[in-house]
Amino acid sequence: MHIIPDTLGLIGNTPLVRLKGPSAESGAEIFGKCEFANPGASVKDRAALGIVEDAEARGVLKPGGTIVEGTAGNTGIGLALVGNAKGYRTIIVMPETQSREKMDTLRALGAELVLVPAAPYSSACHFVHTSRRIAEETEGAIWANQFDNIANRRAHITGTAEEIWAQMDGRIDGFTCAAGTGGTIAGVGLGLKARDESVTIALTDPHGAALYEYYAHGELKSEGSSVAEGIGQGRITANLEGAPIDTQFRISDQEGWYWVRRLLDEEGLCLGLSSGINVAGAVRLGQRLGAGTRVATILCDTGFRYLSTLHDPAWREAKGLA
């Protein structure tokens, strides 16, 4: 145990835990990277810090400046915390369909929250395009641009991947997670492949996203829908370019919820649906790689961020997850 010199030093170096149920189900050893242990309670703290420090290093974010971003919520929370610690104002644009907990958290952190209707990326009203316009119109502001700013994935190459490699003593056969911006899977994939080219990197894609078909058949094509927040992508972002994806799985909300429920009931972990989908993908990858192999995935954030949605029985019944 040692003292962390400043609060931003709390980001990263999260624990890795062996998951008993998924390990037994798959016959492999399944490990979850506990990203809910970050100060903003999600994996997105890493990208937030990486993006802000990159902007500072390039001289485009100056003292007293403003950080603007379009996000499903968790990146905004990370940016607000980093911004507070460094003295920046934060403006966050978020689809109004996201959980109330994320909205309340952003307001509590002092971020200026702009809610917009959910819209396809092709629409000028999409939250990403709206955030870019606000940044362009705000003096002293930068647009974080988490989807296409590769400072995002660099944070996972130098941070998350290296931590997983060290925690597993270099004995890792596979890694999988879903893609939102693509920063985590691309960054961890590139980092692990640099250590050992034989590590299998698998995309775990929710229904409604287009990347499963892209990596399986070379075509961006979606099927079905998902209520998972923060994951699912319909284009190849700059962070995804060159991502070393070896194989891919498509996971339903029902399968993800099955693992959320089991991990809560059997292991005392309260997670969100994106984590459940990741664990489902890790089980599939472990089954494919074979008995005794070692697979890691990302436990993206805390389930306490979804008390009014995923962990509310009435909400789940309305979404067909009861």
Number of helices: 11
Strand order of the largest sheet: 1-2-10-7-8-9
The N- and C-terminal alpha carbons lie at a distance of 42 Å
Number of strands: 10
Broad shape: globular
Largest sheet: 6 strands, mixed
The string of secondary-structure elements, in order, is: EHEHEHEHEHEHEHEHEHHEH
Please bin the fraction of helical residues. Answer: 40-55%
- As residue ranges, the low-confidence spans are none
Estimate the mean pLDDT confidence: 96
Portion in strands: 15-25%
Structural class by helix and strand composition: alpha/beta
What's the Cα radius of gyration? 18 Å
Quick structural gist:
The protein is of the alpha/beta class and 322 residues long.
Can you characterise this structure?
This protein has 322 residues and is α/β, with parallel strands linked by helices. Helices cover 40% and strands 16% of the residues. The protein has eleven helices and ten strands. The chain has helices at 20-26, 44-57, 74-86, 100-108, 127-137, 151-167, 183-195, 211-217, 253-267, 273-289, 313-319, and strands spanning 16-18, 29-34, 66-70, 89-95, 112-116, 141-143, 174-177, 200-206, 247-251, 294-299. The strands form two sheets. A six-stranded mixed sheet has the order 1-2-10-7-8-9, sandwiched between helices. A four-stranded parallel sheet has the order 5-4-3-6, with helices on both faces. α1 (20-26) packs parallel to α10 (273-289), α2 (44-57) crosses α3 and α9 packs across α10 (273-289). The longest helix has 17 residues, at 151-167. It is globular. The mean pLDDT is 96.
